[in-house]
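Listing S7. Sequence submitted for prediction.
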Amino acid sequence: MKDLKLVSNTDGVRIDSWLAKELEGYSRSYLQKLIEQDLVYVNGKKIKANYKVKKGDEISITIPEPETLDIEPENIPLDILYEDEHILVVNKPKGMVVHPAAGNYSGTLVNAIMNYCGDNLSDINGIIRPGIVHRLDKDTSGALIVAKTNEAHKIISEKLKEHDITRIYIALVKGIIKEDKGKIDLPIGRHPIDRKKMAVNTKNGRKAVTHYRVLERFDDSTYVELSLETGRTHQIRVHMSYIGHPVIGDEVYGGRQKGYNLKGQALHAKCIKFHHPITGEYMHIEAPIPDYFEKLLKEKRRRMSNNKNFI
């Protein structure tokens, strides 16, 4: 346990942002969790993450010791797209969970990168999520950045919040999208009834923006490229379902879909573009389209060539 005392010398800045600048090695999301756990006090009182500091505020923060959990490195193959001493970019396979959770402490990407990187992983997000800056759903494949150092982790985390990292996805969605491109600007929050799901939520949701572009049309589906301005949980899946074009294979947001031999959704994080957190070099990293997706497209094209009535 570590207790810190700070005094604010500024006005009008959110306390989570202010603390992230004052305390090296701690991400804003981690500090928000400490605030939620009542480990941050201002002038002796509990506050929320949106509290705006005032000059002279006396801030006390308690940073707990890391928990001891039985998370072991596992010799699981990794498809490494890029690596240096600061970051790792991996091509996460479909079906792999990114980090351990209650009752599921093995077979995850974290187990694999712990084995590969040893102690060379950032520890900002604790021992359950070492190196993990952002996530992909279990059944979404593709490019994902892993931070080896706390400095890289903090900078990448801030770039994500500032929408300074470009993430391009491809998906096969149900139905035929008529327009060649479009923008979905609808807030996303917890589903009002099923709390395990997300939904377009105009009352309590957070801003979410998805851009899509049609790559190819088939007889009953559309192959699209998608880019995110924001990174809400299940954003693409929720947005595409809302406009009537759920991702094929997504039974959570698209219902039961017959005729596709898929486990999970046909969604792949194809490309990630960003400036290196330490060197500033512009990075453009591509994750090859997985075999299952290529086979799906090939079958769709075959059916199209046999369907002469399709216009």
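Caption to Listing S7: primary sequence and predicted structure tokens for the chain studied. Helices lie at 15-22, 28-36, 109-117, 150-161, 235-242, 251-254, 291-306. The chain has a mean pLDDT of 89.
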